[in-house]
Amino acid sequence: LLLIPIPLLGTTTLNPVTSVSGSLAPSGLVLGVYEKQSNNDGIHLTEAAAAFDRSISGKLSEMLSISGPPLKKGKSRIFYGLHQDFPSAVVVGLGKSGTGVCGKENWNNCKENIRAAVSAGCRQLQDLEVAHVEVDPCGDGQSAAEGAVLGLFEYDELKTKKKVRVTTQPYGSVDSAAWQKGVMYGDGQNLARQLMEAPANHITPTVFANTIEQKLSPFAHKVAVHKRPQSWIESEQMGAFLSVSKGSEEPPIFLELHYKGSLDSAQPPLVLVGKGITFDSGGISLKPSSGMDAMRADMGGAATVCSAIVTAAALKLPINIIGLAPLCENMPSGKANKPGDVVRAKNGKTIQIDNTDAEGRLILADALCYAHSFKPRAIINAATLTGTNTQAALMLSNKHRLINGFSLSFIITGDRVWRMPLFQHYTKQITESALADLNNIGKYSRSGGACTAAAFLREFVTADHWAHLDIAGVMTNKDEVPYLRKGMSGRPTRTLVDTHLHTKQDNLLE
Fold first, then answer.
1. What sequence ranges are listed for the domain Cytosol aminopeptidase (predicted)?
2. Gap between the Cα atoms of 409 and 402, Å rounded
């Protein structure tokens, strides 16, 4: 970080921006610069940065030339006093121009570079307590908006000292629809992050359901919210779900969301199912205490699914979506499941519970059975189920073309996915049970855990188009994604939203 005061420009008169609260707020600017293609090239500014440079008679190019070596990808410099409307301007490195999809990384380099660069610039200005920031669209307004919105998020609701709340808007010419779409994508993922970060005593099953209902209230004409109580769950004979919830004092909720975005009311819905364990102690098979606090986010599947539906409603996507989230806690008590217990799922299959910490697949089993009652065009479930890896969501599906639709979206959003097999080998592991039709962990326990978990879920799926996303490995962010701060990631909310744009194509559902 290079701080360069510029007294030679003289005293400037600021043109202050009014913040959301109505008070006068200092304004900052984030601009992009590309790496040189060769040593003979000059400074390669984005279109917006070049226009800014011309407005100040080339001072930006001049300062970049004398302030140090050319900016590499992800690096930045901040300048003061270049323009009367912007007391501070951050220039961020975008890497080489013209980059696209990288087959090795399985994402779009250009989009990821923009998100990371814009995020870094906005955070620097936030650290300076700049309350309003204008952002260079960098040729991709949606990615720039996503970088700004995602990069500025931090869960500090329960802290006395909070970071400055920053408002952002695009600088220069931009496709306003693309920018707004990026804002909505970012807001959707941030909603999932907020739910996942909140302590378990603040986000109980009831509070979770109420929060989503409140977020969907502006779209009441398009969305129906049903908060099904325990009596309803019992009437639906969801014995697997109830067996997990009975160990907690918090009552379970089965949250059911209906978004009707299609003008064709007969259009079969896309059903999204999310695991909603608002705290996972492991039950009688108690987890180690170290790191157990992170299990407040074991409802990441429900958080991403519900947030995706909120985003779809905000974007007015022209499709029908149903969201299902079985919500409960997994706690040890005198009423809790015991290893060796046998329970009966909604479809009549019996399940031997050899490990009470493999509870997510139990609540999903009943939800998947219920999902079929809507005659869906496809069922997609998301769950923090096994935590097998840390760099990609794991995906298992009974339909190759459905995975193609996801793959397109994962490349666009940068979330990435790793396809895993659904061999009969894994099915045998969970169907060879001493006491029941199925075993909830399989005879080899953690061997191929993500695959045996998916094989278990497949026993409750009869639909032709079904995909399972194991998102435990991307539940948190350390430094894997530069435009997300450390903490709960909210991944892959943007992908679940974007996938709707591809799965609505009939050829992906053949």
1. 355-362
2. 11
Model's pTM, two decimal places?
0.93
Q: What does the block give as tokens for 296?
A: 């407040």
Please state, as a whole number, how many other Cβ atoms lie within 10 Å of the Cβ of residue 333.
12
| Range of lowest pLDDT (87-96, 168-177, 463-472, 493-502) | 493-502
The average pLDDT across 399-403 equals 82
- Going along the chain from its start, the domains and CATH numbers come out as 3-171 (3.40.220.10), 189-509 (3.40.630.10)
What's the token pair of residue 28?
């900052």
Q: What's the length of the chain? A: 510
d(C-alpha 8, C-alpha 10), whole Å? 5
pLDDT (0 to 100) of residue 23: 40
SS3 434: coil
Residue 44: pLDDT band with limits 50, 70, 90: very high
Alpha-carbon distance of 30 to 117, in angstroms, equals 9
Band of residue 265 on the pLDDT scale cut at 50, 70, 90: confident
Indicate whether 186 pLDDT > 80: yes
Contacts of 455 (CB under 8 A, 6+ apart): 422, 426, 427, 429, 430, 442
**Would you say residue 493 has pLDDT above 70?**
yes
- 3-state SS of 202-213? CCCHHHHHHHHH
- Contacts of 382 by beta carbon, 8 Å cutoff, 6+ apart: 272, 273, 274, 275, 300, 301, 304, 305, 469, 471, 492, 496
163-166: long-range contacts (C-beta < 8 A, 24 or more apart)?
163/126, 164/126, 164/129, 164/130, 164/131, 165/20, 165/131, 166/122, 166/125, 166/126, 166/130, 166/131, 166/132, 166/133
Are 394 and 467 in contact by the 8 Å Cβ rule? The answer is no
Lowest mean pLDDT among 29-43, 199-213, 367-381: 29-43
